Amino acid sequence: MKGLMATDDATKRIQRRAPRIAADHPHYKWVALSNTTLGMLIATINSSIVLISLPAIFNGIRLDPLQPGNVSYLLWMLMGYMLVTAVLVVTLGRLGDILGRVKIYNAGFLIFTVTSVILSVDPLHGGGGALWLIGWRVAQAVGGSMLMANSAAIITDAFPARQRGMALGVNMVAGIAGSFIGLVLGGLLAEWNWRSIFWVNVPIGIVGTVWAYRSLHETGIRRPAKMDWWGNITFAVGLTALLAGITYGIQPYGGHTMGWTNPWVLAGLFGGVATLVAFCLIENKVAEPMFPLKLFRNAAFAGGNAATLLGSIARGGLQFMLIIWLQGIWLPLHGYNYADTPLWAGIYLLPLTVGFLAAGPVAGALSDRYGARLFAASGFVVMAGSFAGLLLIPTDFSYWVFALVVFLNGLGGGLFAAPNTSIIMASVPAESRGAASGMRATFQNAGMVLSIGVFFSLMVAGLARSLPHTLSSGLTAQGVPAANAHAVANLPPVGTLFAAFLGYNPIQQLLGPDLLGRLPAANAHTLTGREFFPHLISGPFHDGLVVVFALAIVMSLVAAGASLIRSRRTGTDS
């Protein structure tokens, strides 16, 4: 705590010495860019930093994530932050248009910093500890939503059109790269102490908060308006129900491998869709809607957001699949202990981040000169090619081939991110930039949540076809009685999938100490060793990968086409 106070005091002294740059000063735009980029980076790092740190978190709060009753904790740890940001960014972007974008953005930095402190001091264990983290992550996501919803609008207000693509490029590269950096950072910090994944936010948040309150000015157009409460409520309820229903659909129910027949899942899906339909009707009736649907009459705006959604689903699915591939299969086969796989998975995914960082700023700057559409579309074509490459390499791959393919995927994402944002933000009037920024962030964050349900469902479906036979024959070959092997093989494959995702070897838990004790020592050692489980699931996992990455290829190519759509009104590349 003394260290935090010292950091805060030092920041205040620096701010007092430095003169505040006026909004019309030529350097102000760089101040706005650097602070909003820091805000986006810290907000998006926290959407993925927990993703790879889950084994350390569950060990820290003494909770077994593979117990059936604890799967819900795991799911909400994964999707709670992303779900809240998906739901709130439009509302908070709209609120920024009304009350001031800088005011909402600054409050977001403050909330984010305070909740990071509270998360790091979780005093509970078991289910209570998990609920503490889930609840305060939701509160942290409110602050993150304020940052995400208004950063692009603040930059668009501060920069002239000729430099806007470059500035948005830097901001968006920070935003999307944050989700990749979070994987590496989470692996490194979780190796030391699970609480450190929240500590790391605190000094950055203090500096960013003081800096934002000191330096940013309201330069955008503020338009007094009434809050669209019915629109906000129906949107939040509808989107939450729909996304939660899709995510819970991957859990087994009533003897089925997945929960698509669960009445609660069906209620979430159909109820969510019905509520969103009501939301659309409300938005067409109210004078000042929070989600101005008229903006979608602009073909460039509609196409840009469609590309954002599809790209986010594909990118989210890629992250989940690569973590499973590395932590559950490749790293154990190459001699890494299960406890060390989160750290090394983050390290081995560095080429993905490097590719994104290499292409993002360059694509943003060049799109100002040559037009955004070609860069956005070509980025998706490169991504589609990288997904095809991941289908062609074997499960036990040569790392340098894998590194090249994921580098190309990051490169494609970098080519797309900034030009796509430039297309969206340039296609709306100045007074709607906060709402447009929130809409774009909604599609991006909703895509990440959707990817959990869509890609995990496809992977579970792929595993369900081949895993039972593979698991049963593999266990009986090691002397496990046929009845026990059959019982284990017919357990829902989602448990095996989560085990691989978390870097766990579930064989010891599935068989139990009594059964393992009756087997020959060599067989028991093989079953619980590093290589048996990865070898066992590698074939079924690759079957699932074929379905998952084939869909990702289709999504990427459709998104490339959506990026080329021009506004009939202007016909420009802006």
From TrEMBL:
Keywords, comma-separated and alphabetical: Antibiotic resistance, Membrane, Transmembrane, Transmembrane helix, Transport
A single GO BP: response to antibiotic
Localization (cell): Cell membrane
Gene3D superfamilies membership: MFS general substrate transporter like domains
Coiled coil: none
InterPro entries, sorted: MFS (IPR011701), MFS_dom (IPR020846), MFS_trans_sf (IPR036259)
GO molecular function: transmembrane transporter activity
Residue ranges crossing the lipid bilayer per the database entry: 38-61, 73-92, 104-121, 133-155, 167-190, 196-213, 233-251, 263-282, 303-326, 346-367, 374-393, 399-425, 446-464, 544-565
Membrane topology: Multi-pass membrane protein
CC terms in the record's Gene Ontology section: plasma membrane
The protein, known as: Predicted arabinose efflux permease, MFS family
Organism annotation: Actinacidiphila cocklensis
Lineage: Bacteria, Bacillati, Actinomycetota, Actinomycetes, Kitasatosporales
